[in-house]
Amino acid sequence: xxxxxxxxxxxxxxxxxxxxxxxxxxxxxxxxxxxxxxxxxxxxxxxxxxxxxxxxxxxxxxxxxxxxxxxxxxxxxxxxxxxxxxxxxxxxxxxxxxxxxxxxxxxxxxxxxxxxxxxxxxxxxxxxxxxxxxxxxxxxxxxxxxxxxxxxxxxxxxxxxxxxxxxxxxxxxxxxxxxxxxxxxxxxxxxxxxxxxxxxxxxxxxxxxxxxxxxxxxxxxxxxxxxxxxxxxxxxxxxxxxxxxxx
Length: 247
Hints:
By secondary structure, this protein is an alpha/beta fold. The protein is 31% helix and 18% strand. The protein has seven helices and ten strands. It has helices at 38-60, 78-89, 104-110, 143-151, 175-179, 194-205, 225-233, and strands spanning 3-4, 30-31, 70-72, 94-98, 114-117, 134-139, 153-161, 183-186, 217-221, 240-244. The strands form three sheets. It has a six-stranded parallel beta sheet, sandwiched between helices. It has a two-stranded antiparallel sheet with strand order 1-2. The chain has a two-stranded parallel sheet with strand order 9-10. Helix 1 (38-60) crosses helix 2 (78-89) and helix 1 packs across helix 6. The chain is globular and about 55 Å long. The mean pLDDT is 95.
């Protein structure tokens, strides 16, 4: 049977992240949904699964497409780029925040209606609240960026937080939560409950399926992984990098 595995610390605390064959507990596996093949499933990978979880969190907290702009930080990364594509497909007004202005046209093609610099979501003041701007956000950065987003989110908005590339501290007060009713939804992909996991993969294969994944995907070999990892850490990558394990 064709199955996929993401999360559960595979490749970190458990061996086998880049193996052609691996033995794992049966409950880790998800039957590859009809509508996508193994290549597409792994092009989504953990990043696509995380992006879909973030979108679902916004919906579950009542943030509809009519509510206003949704900002996606770290927009050129795996989670960011796929978040933009999914949100756009569902009719949301997506604003991409990125530190790579040369990728503006690529982000617009993914479905963003506007691309802003990351400085626009970085406020270093000690003001407990900022002007309301966003109906919601998907944040892959954390730190001061997440603090800025929380302070500038509209009443009853929601932010799905899934990363800490910009730091793990959260310098702010409780004012956004108790005066605007803002929700901070934490996204944990590695240990996502199985029922939720199955639901999300079915959506990615069906109503949330991203068309044109090849346009944001580079295919590399196993021998390229170390170099690609360094490029990723240096902020030189865009979209998805798929590792082809066979010739």
